[in-house]
Amino acid sequence: MHKILTIAIREYRAMIVTKGFLIGLAIVPIMFLGGAIIPQLIGKSLDLDDKKLAVIDRSGRLYPVLEQAALQYNTTVVFDSTTKKQIGPKIVLESIPIEGASDELKLDLSDRVRQRKLHAFADIAPAVFEMRLTEPPVTYHSENSAMSDTKRWLDSVINGEVRRARIAESGLDADLVNGVTSQVVVDGRGLLTRNSSGTGPVQPAAKSNAMETLFVPMGCMMLMFMLIFMALQPMLECVLEEKQQRVGEVLLGSVNSTQLMGGKLLGNVAGSLTVFVIYASAGFGIAWFNDVLDKVPWRVVPWFLLFHVCAVLMFSGITMAFASASNNLQEAQGYMMLVWMPLIVPMFVWLSIVQNPNGSFATWFSLIPPVTPLTMVLRIAASSAVPLWQILLGVALTIAFTVLCVVVAGRIFRIGMLSQGKAPKLVDLLKWAFVGV
């Protein structure tokens, strides 16, 4: 045991006390979360140029309404109410005479859009106020109309005015119509609870937040993925370096392969848990600073740690086996695709699992051992109603599969560390794994 701990401490220091580790702590979260965080940080600050919108108003009634709405938008929405700083682009309207508004004119307007002299143009039909229309009453033309904020603004203003005009022309009371057609809001809430003793009053259900419901589970899954990612690469490079420089042969002269592999795995788990503590502390600090500690899924933490340790042991063992059977980094990277696939697959189905965490698909998928750690944590974070027997079964299957992976990887590691020359074929790896020779 002393030798295992010595190796573990050495591996832990090799992983933690390096410049690469410190750089990785900062770079890896940016790699995985930058796509979601950076747009929120920069907002629209990089696009403050005026959005010039040309309007062909064939109805003769909507352009003045659009002018008034644009003035209000540019005064209130575009500027921050507290700092008075511009936070978005202004909308600048240009009226196009309807005389001669043919396809040739629309082609000229399209060319102006391509030349960046115009952001977009809209063509409003004369019959836009009629109730039964056979053709689109308004067409909006731009380079990317599907994602355009200007299009959404135009849609909102025109629909509001057309609705008001139709109600007035029908001789109906506007307040009555709005009251009759007002939507009933379905207030999404969680589940009611009682205190741990089961004797206190029933606790009211908290309101559900769509963004929180989606991205808290995803954040837990991505955190586990990042921790595993940061643990596997150093393990791969360390084992490969020891084999190439024949250091592994010297080590195996002092300890057996089980002790060497056990020490490396233990050090790798300790290093990964250190990264978890750093990230978790930073996350809790940010939550405390923003007064949202009540949003932290505390009930997930113990299960996260348990599944995380199993996942690191499982995938580190497989990584060590492949590294020991490879002669260079190129060969090892080819094998690593077999390691990354079980880690990547849950990301393809995470949305389906979050939407129905207790459905049959989510249940059975989370009980497939290679993907159980990530998917079970995803389910637990998405729902407090995951049956305990399913969680315990997932733990049991993960531990059993982890033990199997470590044993099989140990056999490959024992032979692979001492083998040199031609890289073994997949058949050879299977023979080493199941026969041990």
Which keywords apply here?
single chain, 437 residues, mainly alpha, D-Maltodextrin-Binding Protein, domain 2, four-stranded mixed beta sheet, 15 helices, 4 strands, elongated
Description:
- The protein is mostly helical.
- It has two domains: 51-172, D-Maltodextrin-Binding Protein, domain 2 (3-Layer(aba) Sandwich), CATH 3.40.190; 209-434, no CATH class.
- It is 63% helix and 5% strand.
- It has 15 helices and four strands.
- Strands 2-1-3-4 form a four-stranded mixed beta sheet, sandwiched between helices.
- Helix 3 links the parallel strand 1 and strand 2.
- Helix 9 (257-289) runs antiparallel to helix 10 and helix 13 packs antiparallel against helix 14 (388-416).
- The chain starts with a helix and ends with a helix.
- The model has no long low-confidence stretch (mean pLDDT 82).
Secondary structure: elements and pairs:
Layout: H1 2-16, H2 19-42, E1 51-57, H3 63-76, E2 91-95, H4 103-114, E3 120-124, E4 138-141, H5 149-169, H6 174-181, H7 210-244, H8 247-252, H9 257-289, H10 301-324, H11 329-355, H12 360-365, H13 372-382, H14 388-416, H15 426-434
Parallel strand pairs: 1-2, 1-3
Antiparallel strand pairs: 3-4
Helix pairs in contact: 1-9, 7-9, 7-10, 7-11, 7-13, 9-10, 10-11, 10-13, 10-14, 11-13, 13-14, 14-15
